[in-house]
UniProtKB/TrEMBL annotation:
It is found in: Cell membrane. Belongs to the glycosyltransferase 2 family. CrtQ subfamily. This is 4,4'-diaponeurosporenoate glycosyltransferase. Coiled coil: none annotated. Its main location: membrane. Catalyzes the glycosylation of 4,4'-diaponeurosporenoate, i.e. the esterification of glucose at the C1'' position with the carboxyl group of 4,4'-diaponeurosporenic acid, to form glycosyl-4,4'-diaponeurosporenoate. This is a step in the biosynthesis of staphyloxanthin, an orange pigment present in most staphylococci strains. Pathway: Carotenoid biosynthesis; staphyloxanthin biosynthesis; staphyloxanthin from farnesyl diphosphate: step 4/5.
Amino acid sequence: MDGDHDSTVSVVIPVKDDAPLLARCLRALAEQTRAPHEIIVVDNNSQDDSARVARDAGATVVPCAAPGIPAASATGYDAASSDYVLRLDADCLPEPTWIATFAGALDARRDVAVVTGGAHFVDGPKPLRRIAAAIYLGMYVATTSPALGHSPVFGSNLGFRRSAWLAVRDEVHLHAGIHDDLDLAYHFGERHRIRRVRTPVMGMSMRPLSSVGGFARRTAWAFRTVLLHWPADFPSVRWIRLALRRVLHRLGVPTPRAARTRQGRA
């Protein structure tokens, strides 16, 4: 593995009762062309061997008692000590160049704070894998971009500067039942540039589409997250605010931070 880099990378994986897929994910991370400084597995009250699997693979296990992906992910981001934080899920299968590509994108563009990418399914009916993933992620981008006023982020294939996380950590919502990717995009997009990286594509499980209930639950999370940000982030209000902020930034005029607190802590 290539370790001759000034910037360091932490990989964060939230997990709950997903030991076999976590083992597969960790094996893929061991084959990366650029090694991470650390791998942090956040154990969200697992009842299986997820924590043991993580430790056996050399990962650092951080417990998170609060239920839900938002709290577990934030716990991992808080624990990360590197310049860059890369996030994927236990059911993901990253290509060997994943870390190198995302870290390289952040190395090359100092004006970009967040990078994200697409995915394809690695299970389910073979003829449907890529087209189903394209439809699934395409719908996510098409429906959330107008609400955000910029591109969303995809939590299963995500990277960002640790400094960007520290700038928004007290504003994100941590309670269960919201769409953590979308919530994070609201806060990152307020002051940080998000760039979509086309390669490498992340492999992931088709579980989000495996049942009508699962897909409906994720849709409900997204609607709840959008409404949670209204009226301050009502689309027209947010678009104008972001446009004015960009103009002021180009003119070198500092803009005040939004007066928000981490409501999920309550």
